[in-house]
Amino acid sequence: MARSAWRVAGSLPPRLAGALWFGAFLLPVVAWSALSYVPWLWHPQVLIDHAGDSVYAVDMRVESSAFADAVVQAQRSGTAAPRGDRVNPVFLPAPHEVARALWTGFTTPPLRRGDPWLHESIGHSISVILWGFVISALIGVPLGILCGAIPALSRLIEPFVDFIRYMPAPAFGALCVAVLGINDAPKIAIIVVGTLFQMVLVVANTTRNLDRALIEAAQTLGASDKRLLTRVVVPGILPNLYTDMRVLLGWAWTYLIVAELIGASSGISWYINQQGKYRAYDNVFAGIIIIGLIGLITDQVLGWIGRFVFPWSGQQPSRPSQIAFAIVSFPLRLPYIMLMLARKYDPKAGQQ
Amino acid sequence: MNDAIQERFERIAARPVVLDVRQLGMSFPGVGGVVAHALHDVSFQVRRREFITVVGASGCGKSTLVRILAGLTGHTAGEVLLDGKPVNGPGPDRGMVFQGYTLFPWLSVLKNVMFGLEMQERGHDQARSEALQWLELVGLGNKAEVWPHQLSGGQRQRVAIARALAAGPRILLMDEPFGALDPQTRANLQEHLLQIWQQVDITIVFITHDIDEALWLADRVLVLQPPDAEHRGGWLREMVDVPLPVPRTREMVNSPAYRAAREHLEHLIHPPRAAAAERLPVFKMTKAGDEVL
Question: Predicted confidence band at B281 (pLDDT cuts at 50, 70, 90)?
Answer without folding.
Answer: low
